[in-house]
Amino acid sequence: MLAVCMTLIDDAESQTEFNDIVMQYEKKLYGYAYSILHNTALAEEAVWETFFAIAKCFERIKDGGIENIEAYLVITLRNSCYKIYNSEKKHYDSLSLDTVNETEVSSFDEFNKYEISDLCDALKELNDTYQSVIAYMLYYEYSADDTAKLMGISRSTVYKYLNDAKKTLRNKLGGC
């Protein structure tokens, strides 16, 4: 699978950096995936699905600074695990997400009025999915399309999760 990932990366220097990341984090990611999936084959699949997703956008990740790669890998792995778990158990969301209006998602500027510590505490209380969407879109500045691809969900689901996360944050922070 490493060879497949390497074909997605253009230059030799980047391939070397990617290979170093794989060697450094493969066992750690496998342990984390196994703790979620409780299955060796599925855990391995999740790890390589994660590396494949990283390889597809490696130049962008590398340009954004490789120092936060572990957090990025863990978020992507967690999403891969949930995607695999859901496909194995055949539990799909039956919600109609096509009704989400993407223009309804406004910025998160309304949260600037809160203390950082209060905001951090509220963010930590969000579920993993909401945290991932916020991290991809606001911290890593990915588009909704890129976020959807990395998480294995639709673009409208990304916006639904953002709206739900904002509503949850408002409630946790004592807003309207």
Give short descriptive properties of this protein.
2 domains; 176 residues; mainly alpha
CATH topology of the largest domain: Rna Polymerase Sigma Factor, Chain: A
Under the CATH scheme, the architecture of the largest domain is Orthogonal Bundle
Share of helical residues: over 70%
Distance between the first and last residues' Cα: 49 Å
Counting DSSP H or I runs of 4 or more residues, the number of helices is: 9
**Helix/strand structural class:** mainly alpha
Give start-end ranges of low-pLDDT stretches.
91-104
Instruction: Report the average pLDDT across residues.
Output: 79
> How many distinct beta strands?
0
Summary?
70% of the residues lie in helices and 0% in strands. It has helices spanning 2-7, 12-37, 40-56, 58-63, 69-89, 116-125, 128-139, 144-151, 155-172.
